[in-house]
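fyi for ur records
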Amino acid sequence: MIVNFRLSSHMQVLQKPLDHKMWDTFSRYTSRVRSIIQFGNSTSIEPLSLILLSCPFAPASLFPKLCQLIWFADVTRGATEFLCMAFVPSLLSLSLNVDISSASPAFLPVFSSLGTLCPRLHTMTLRSTHLRAVDGPSPNDSPFIIQPISQLHHLRNLDIWDLGIQGIQQIMLLRALQTVTLDFRTSPLSVWDRRSPLRLPGFQNLHLLCLSADECERPLNFLSSLYNCQNQKNCGQLHPSGCTAPRTFP
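which gave:
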């Protein structure tokens, strides 16, 4: 199958739409895909994204067997469109390393549909490419992240940055969670810079809680807000960058 592109103002433009025979060939291969892994610069994915935008099939029928998506790449033009097509009901594991501050305006709306499009998801990693950056994850972005996660009732493993008190409260409602990793290094300011007067109920069935931070203050303030932490049979590890070894708490 040969698809022709031309350059226009440093952009690749699809010269003509795919015919029915091309789509049959294309879907014959995509229907076999079970895992998609993308590292580094995502500009190579732009031609494929242009094809996907004109796809006459529903995303679920394009990748009906996709189980794993690992996307440790910059979210540039074309990448968001591809992610939209890869969010399918069969997806079980998702890992994204993103720079939300420079992402396409469509990224957050696309991500907010994750809970509806991927209800069977059981493992998710969401990381920020710029730790401690001034333009790191913004509190204004949190609702787009929190809402879809709160809909993932089969989620067992979650690795994510600090989403603030509201985000933590929503995550704690997910009864299937067994492993949670929280990264407190992604923002220069955090609600956990001081002790919170609020008391959080803690996680329901958690086996392992890992907290990553440059200093112990934020993780310890977070732990102090869990009013039933001592009643839970959880094992946790604290990984401050200034310590030579992780600190373990019961």
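The mean pLDDT is 78. thats all i got for now
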